[in-house]
Design a protein that fits this description.
single chain; alpha/beta; Rossmann fold; 8 helices; 5 strands; about 55% helix; about 10% strand; globular
Length: about 220
């Protein structure tokens, strides 16, 4: 592929994204595809500093708009410094969270609505994922998987907040069925990985077929 594939993982905290991202990287490497793993907020030295501010449990007074702008600032640096250069070099990028997280956490969870989408359209310079794996897990189940003393500022939010976030994810799933692939994350790690593998193999076969067609033309 002349330009790499951009894959994102979304889902409630505790849904197992990190594990599944590692499994997907292994699958891509089996096929000889170089994959860059990254995360949000973070992914760059500047982004990681912003991450510390956002997730610090002591920053409970943070305003919702401040939070939204911090996420977007981290993302703008991430896109410019890491994601776009990797894609332009033909590498596949797998990102733990992207714009969808801001839309559901700040747009739905914080009640900021479409302002979050507008802020992030500026931050990402038109970049959108080719495919998003939504690890679907009831919010309470996800919270129960993380020890209370290990929960960050966002994870510590009340269950009502996380329920609104989950509702936002379901809305995105409904609105963008071609991009948003929901996977039942309540199952075993191997079962979840198997379903993601199946979807990914289909996507790769489709991409290879399209490239062959382009060459023939």
């Amino acid at each position: 592929m002349s330009e790499g594939l951009f894959i994102t993982f979304e889902g409630p905290d505790g849904s197992g994204k990190t594990t599944q991202i590692q499994r997907l990287k292994a699958l891509l490497e089996e096929r000889g595809i170089e994959a860059v793993l990254t995360r949000e907020p973070g992914g760059t030295p500047i982004g990681e500093k912003i991450r510390e501010i956002i997730l610090d449990r002591e920053n409970g007074e943070m305003d919702s708009l401040t939070e939204a702008f911090l996420y977007a600032s981290s993302r703008a640096q991430h896109v410019a410094q890491v994601i776009k250069p990797a894609l332009e070099a033909g590498k596949t990028v797998i990102c733990d969270r992207f714009t969808d997280s801001s839309i559901v956490y700040q747009g739905y969870g914080r009640g900021l609505g479409d302002r979050v989408r507008v802020i992030n359209q500026i931050a990402v310079q038109g970049l959108e994922p080719d495919v998003t794996f939504f690890l679907k897990l009831p919010p309470q189940t996800g919270k129960d998987r993380i020890k209370a003393e290990e929960q960050d500022r966002m994870e510590l939010e009340k269950i009502e907040f996380h329920n609104e976030v989950f509702h936002g994810y379901e809305e995105l799933e409904r609105m963008e069925p071609e991009r948003f692939i929901a996977v039942d994350a309540a199952r075993s790690i191997d079962e979840v990985a198997g379903e993601i593998r199946l979807h990914m193999c289909r996507l790769l076969e489709k991409a290879e077929s399209e490239m062959k067609t382009e060459r023939q033309e």
